[in-house]
Amino acid sequence: MMKEEETRNINIVNSEPLSPLKKWSAKWSLWPCHFVTSCCGVELAHAYGCGYDGERLGSLAMGISRQANTIIVEGTITRKMARPLRVVWEQMPDPKFVNVIGACGERGGIFWNSYHITHPHRIVPVDFFVPGCPVTPEALLRGIRALQDKIEGDDRSTISFRTVDLSGAGGKKNRVPESPKIIAPTPLVKPDIPSGVRWEEGEQIVEMLKKVLGELVISITVTDKDRIAIKTTPENIREVAARLSAEMKIDHVKSVNVIDVPHERKFIIEYTAGSYEKELMPVLFTIFADLRSGKDEISFPSLADIWMSADYTERELQDFFGVKFEGNPGREGNFLLAPDTPKFPLRRSFKLEEERYVLEDDKPFAPVIDPPTEFDIPLPPGLEEEVGAAGEYLLLVGPHHTGSGHLRWIMRLKGDTLSEVIPDPGYVHRSMEKLAENRLYIQNIPLFERLCIVDPFNVNLGYVRTIEKALKIDVPERATYIRTLMAELSRIDAFTYDAGIFSLFMGHSTGFMYLWAIREMLLEMITAMTGSRCSPSFIIPGGIRRDISDEVLNLVEKLPTAVQGRLRKFEDIFVNNPVLISRVKGVGVLSREDAIKAGIVGPFLRASGVEYDIRKIEPYEAYGDLDWEVIGADDGDCLVRFLVRLEEMQESLNIVKQCVEKLKSMERGGVMSEAILGEYSEAKDDIRGSFYRVFGNLVLPRGEWSTVTEAARGTLFFSILSDGDSNVPYRVRTISPSWYNLRGIIEASRGEKMADFWAVYGSFGYFPPEADR
Amino acid sequence: MMGTIEALINLMMADQVAIPLLDPILNILYGIPLLGYLLAFILWKPIFAGLVCPGFATLGVILMLFPWIERKLVARMQWRVGPREILPQFGGIIQLLADSLRFLFQEVIVHRDAKQPYFVQFPVLSFIPALLPLLFIPAGVIVAVKSAYGVQIILALVCLFPFFILGLGWASNSRFAYIGTVREAFMYFAYEIPFIIAVLAMIVLYGTSDPVAIAGMSVPGIILNPLAALTFFIAAAMATSRLPFEIAEADQELAAGPHVEYSGILFGLIYVMCYEKMYILSGLMTILFLGGGSGPEIAILGDLSGVVYFMIKTVIVMTLLAALRGVYPRYRLDQGLKIGWSSMLIMGTLALVISLAEVLIL
Q1: How far apart are CA B292 and CA B282, in angstroms?
Q2: What DSSP character marks residue A718?
Q3: How many angstroms separate the CA atoms of A639 and A586, rounded?
Q4: How far is it, in rounded angstroms, from Cα A128 to Cα A628?
Q5: A737, A561 in Cβ contact below 8 A?
Q6: ipTM
Q7: Structure confidence by residue, pLDDT tens digits, A682-710
Q8: CA pair distance A500, A597, nearest whole angstrom
Q9: Could A395 and B179 be called an inter-chain contact, meaning their C-beta atoms sit closer than 8 Å?
Q10: Does any CB of chain B come closer than 8 Å to the CB of residue A761?
């Protein structure tokens, strides 16, 4: 980036002749182009939604870079997204302005030492930074006003840095506190350590497995309730998978994992599979094998042809670890990571920058990241020739496109028909798994929450439940009800978001606005309970941060009625609209078999006729005590996928009502488990003040702990591998519902009309930050 | 020489726009030498129609105001406020002024792949079909060119519009523009025929195609043949790319379709072109179906009374078209085509049958 660029645009509006007119028109016509880069985009939508209405300021959210004159960079710019950022900026006509919102856009925020992020101000000239994680819509609009003032000539830099002289404070070295992290150098890493929980059916399943698999396996262990680990070898794993698939009806893969154990010179490759057969639903089978590392070419047989749901996850791990999955249909080149990302970043030999607690050698506390120098993102090699030979053409949609979200869809079109959509994800890959290996267990709660800030409580709950499972602690009853209440509010939150985007994709901005009105109420409620709009980090191991007062509960009690009223208006104008019905009915059909094969989860799977809801199958929190039903359907088209979620929202409101009633009749206080608090039991009503003392040195027992949680969009898989000595996880694997559903979008849109792709995409509620992790 | 000017003045004075309200002032102004001539020229009915209303000046005002009305209306439907802070006392009424000035001062990018001269020419040329029909649209009794075939000429000129959109999509040479252009072409064929049939039905019904004569009919066309009015309205929505037929521009699918590559003032021209088209089609609808400038005579306004009624009706039709944006999602291309080729074609034909029946029986 050249120095001259920084002032060029403001100089243009200041140039004569007619400078006052130029200033005035630019000031009142700041059209941001649609370039969503990360999770702050949700708050951007709020700023331009019906609650805050950015259009008041003359700022019309316009789709196309050529016609806009502002970029609002929402949060993290990954190395992959940095490229389109520069391209979009160069596409825009002068004069143009850039606002960066969110902490990640400044110094990286919570992802500051991630291997995949970069700093936007090194790529394009930035006019204003708006802090916050995520920023509130008020702050965002204030940023727009500040930009207007800057154009007028009143540059109000509100932050000025003060230099502090530390030389008199008695030597820098003394001031550096000890790192709180304890990392064992050569720990024992084993995924199949039995936890000692008794599970009688498990013995029977193990017997069956032994009969089916015979000599192919090394050992079969019951590691926990509903968890069975099968150890085999790389040579036998394909046969094991084939037999499990054929004879045990294990039909999908929940997770593929690679664990790098450099001090034993091996990788552990792990497939976590499950079955949608009624009696096997809660059981997860972990099939793993040791792979000797040290060789240059490390390869492992792919299971993608046996379980299609493993396909994308294998490709992702190929980028992460450099383990080649032989036989995976993926193309050459990176799938998730940018071309210039460090190679194989998840190997343990790749070290991230460590925190520094005071200035050292006068260096600021932030790593210097060199921005990319090349700005195009290559297509998979050979694709263009292949498409040309087939008489088709390519259409690249995104990441700067009104209908793309934060990823690129490579569409192969024959006329108006999609012959294939190839996803190009990873534009919001913020490397959470790697970061989590370098942070305390408790520091990872806010980190993982950024997976999906429209579904914060469920993601929160998923991670915390895994820790609780490892520590075998029970949560007080009141806390479970509050958690359930929050999880359901979060489910409504995510649904209204997805349905809003869906209606926007269908060209119906009114539906979007009506839902945003519901969201505003909902976020108000979440703020009243937790103090934060969409990133509360409220659920912690052993309970919740603090109790909720009766006044707030009274507020929440009114929520279902208020939501219902507005929801009816939304249904009138959108759901019952004949145009909508004709657009989505019978489009993007996934039959039960296809749905399972593609590995889709949650309400979308239920819309295809699989009654799989983790809240019913292995009830966690208070779901077992509440009266609610699983919503399902058989059609599996876009309309039904949408309606199932709409019905689920009604059910969620119902659960919210029940939870509030129950909570009101309960005695207040005691929302933290005494077992985890230990000597700090006075914190059981409110953890404030004792947080670090209680959780700072949390160490999980040795072994692999995995949970599945029913997040708003479906199964959220968390698995923590602990070595039992360190107070940071050895490996955290998380697979989010959107990542599972990505394959569903691809399969459902195959052979449909081009315009139908957005019906399918919208109906799956795909949220790229959640998928990319 | 003097004789010629005098004859010309006499010619103009014979056909002036009569405004009783302003008569005292006008009479004084006519007396002033040069200004008087100018005034006589402007108030000469054909020139007044071309330059002031429904022509150039009114078009300008409409283009400056109507997008604001649309944004404000849709914002209200969506529980929002819409443009405001630029002039809070008047609800941000000058928003479009800021937008258009910004477009004017912005860089115009002609990208390397564009078909160079045409890329710049088409947005400018597209003003021809936009401005010419205005000469034939009567506001009350004021019309620039009186013609017995006025309606057909308007129709022919309006049907030229899509060619310019095809042209600029082609000149953009981008894939999104290309797909948008193809969609525009498809939609053009789908609405064109029912649209022409609906107009034809009204010509048959009235027995004349002189817009002034049609506007002067005692019973408005919407009562005589509501089906033709409906067909015309839907076709107008299709022709102006309003939702649910915003298929060629489909923001979420094709970015902005044919004009995805345009920036600066060239985009400004395209942006207002859609509204010009809307204005002309609404004007045509007012003449054919809503009785043109007829209404209870406001004596004090004289000839302007018809102009006022015409404008009110036209803006109402335009508002209805704009309100569709807040109500409907978007159809798919094949569904749009199906509607054009089946339902609307049938509706148009039935409308023609109704007209024939009314003419034969009554």
Answers
A1: 11
A2: E
A3: 8
A4: 48
A5: no
A6: 0.87
A7: 878 888 888 888 887 888 888 888 899 98
A8: 28
A9: yes
A10: no
